[in-house]
Amino acid sequence: MDLAVFLALLAATLRLATPLILGSLAGIWSERSGVINIAIEGIMLSGAFAGYVIAEKTATVIGWSLGPLPGNLLAGSVAACLTGIFLGLLHAFWSSKFRTDQIISGTAINILALGLTAYLLRLIYDVGGSPKLADTLPALLSWTVAGKHGEIAIQFTPIMLAALILAVISHFGLFHTPWGLRTQAVGEHPMTVRTLGMSVEGIRYCNLALSGAIAGLAGAFLTLEQIGQFNEGMTSGKGFIALAVMIFGRWKPLLALAAALFFGLADAAQVLLQTRGISVPAEFLEMLPYLLTIVALLGLVGRTRPPAAIGQS
Amino acid sequence: MPEFARNLVFSALAVLAALLLGAVVLWISGYDVLEALGALALGASGSINANAETLLTTTPLLLAALAVAIGLRGGLFNIGVEGQFLLGGLASVWVGSHLTFLPGPLLLPVILLAGMAGGAVWAAIAGILKARFGAHEVITTIMLNYIAMKGVAYLVRGPLHGPGPIPQTPYIMETAHLPILIPDTRLHAGLLLALLIALAVWWFLWKTPWGFAMRAVGLNPAAAEYAGVGMRRTLVGTMALSGALAGMAGGVQIAGVDFRLVQEGFSAGYGYDSIAVSLLGLNSPFGIILAAWLFAALRSGAAQMQVDAGVSSQIISVLQALVILLVAAEAGIRHTFDLAKQKRRTATATGAVCPPITQDRNSSAATPSPREQN
Questions:
Q1: In chain A, which residue's Cα lies nearest the Cα of B333?
Q2: What pLDDT sits at residue B374?
Q3: Do A118 and B317 touch (CB under 8 A)?
């Protein structure tokens, strides 16, 4: 393998890993505080949709830009995060106020997201797909190498960079700040936290808002940075795969980052094999990420232990 | 009020609230709400054919929702009904188009049994992974859904591709079709079969030792294990049984409606709808019959609504999610409601000297915080 192919694989790995990095961080912040967040898939999808619609509708309205970043795409990213916060809080509200089983309320949010985005897509654009945005979030850093078949560039786009930075911040935040320690305490021994006079629900609301914002950003990555378009059900299970990544990474941000990159690599290799015209049917290659997810869940790579109080209201 | 009537009232309220919210969504979207709802009612139950179509859709929804309910009763959340439905359909279609030497009356039951086996095997994988490795069934079943989808996509284009350019399997033998119930409609005998199965599920869960063991595991795994229930075996068994019902739904669709497997639109999301149906029916077979009819009515009504009022039928998914959220919220509201009533009762009985003992984890009365003590 020459350097150019290797770099192309690396670039694809980063691109495919980004939603998984963000999704698993969203899962970590939620589950570390004791709330199972199966709704990440739906939040991602809603974020992708809200981000796209805002960016598309404000494209002609917003003239300013922040350096190389067009204002409408930034507005879209913010809208994606806000949508995520709203749904994260909805999940927290349902599971703490009404003591709904967290998996059931998460599933309801997933169905709601899938239905509502499809409904609104038809309502606003009158089609199953949406018009392509004029431009997507451009690379902030890029590294170009001349290869045999032309130049290969690794591009670091804004949300991709944000994902990498957020993983580091989350590690620091979770293990070295009072907030992170409180989060862990709520996830392990909520009674203790309550006895100390702190609000378990309050801490969980904040964490779910954070979790939602990160998952929403993952959605914005898909529409505003990668594709520039919204399609029905476009997350296609990435939110669930991110949860497997989180478990694979043992609920630790940096380990999850590594796990997400591993998943990204597997996906990138799969795409590379497809474009090289390998004789295995495409459907089998497309199964790989899902199979890998199941393997990751088997715990073959050492014992995994979720936070003790997970799922309890 | 008896428990059953109370449940019915609460569920009806949840549906009403969801419909109301749905109407608000339509109103905000700028549709003529009355026209849309009129079309919905007409499409759901406005003619013999509309009623037949609603009952036709009730059939797979009922079977798939029973699959979800069996899982939930046994403490497992089987989101993989969609994939098991596909695998059931696949097994049925293979048998129905290959075992052509069998006479029709024999082939039909074989087709349905093949469907059950296909679904059971696919679900058992998730059950074994959970029993052996502790892999959470929610994620494994969803992954198995995607794998089933990709697998079927491959098969209908490759090894199982029937005649013609469309990616679909060969048709099953015509002699093995489920008989039509009402002439000039598509309603087939699968409906009666599904109702019988609902009765059987009720009997199994409440009248047999296996059903009892299964529910015991669902209610309190630790106590069930202590009482000598084999956890792993029950878990895999629950999953397989749930999958068998989901697979049967697929088989019934093959033998009664589709007669072959097409890549897109075979399942039409029954697997996901069934979750809402089961929750609305409070995981009881009789509740599920009513809920399945309601969701089927919404589905056929939505198709009419799309034609007459131009409302995207996706609005149904929104309604379903609202129903799940509201039914789930009601459980919590009723819990606090009952708790308050219980408190009042104990208060009058004991003269309100001691704080009532409740299971309420959040109750601050049982555990005063240090600040309150000061």
A1: A98
A2: 32
A3: yes
Q: Cβ–Cβ of A115/B362 closer than 8 Å?
A: no
Q: Taking 70 as the threshold, does the pLDDT of residue B369 lie above it?
A: no
Question: Angle of helix B209-219 relative to helix B231-253, nearest 10 degrees?
Answer: 110
| Boundaries of domain holding B100 | 3-332
Query: Is residue A256 included in any domain, yes or no?
Result: yes
Q: Which of A20, A96, A294, A303 to mutate to test the interface with B (most CBs of B within 10 A)?
A: A294
Is position B253 within any domain?
A: yes
Does the predicted TM-score (pTM) go above 0.90? Answer: no
Complex prediction ipTM: 0.83
pLDDT (tens digit per residue) in A110-120: 989 998 999 99
Q: How many Å lie between the alpha carbon of B39 and the closest alpha carbon of chain A? A: 18
Sites in chain A below the pLDDT cut of 70: 1-2, 128-129, 147-149, 299-304, 313
Residues of chain A with Cβ-Cβ distance to B140 below 8 Å are: 294, 297
Whether residue A8 contacts residue A150, with contact meaning beta carbons closer than 8 Å, is answered with no
Whether A309 is covered by a domain: the verdict is: no
Q: A242 to chain B: which residues are within 8 Å by CB? A: none
**b vs e for A259-294, b when ≥16 Cβ sit within 10 Å of the residue's Cβ?**
bbbbbbbbbbebeeeeeeeeeebebebbbbbbbbbb
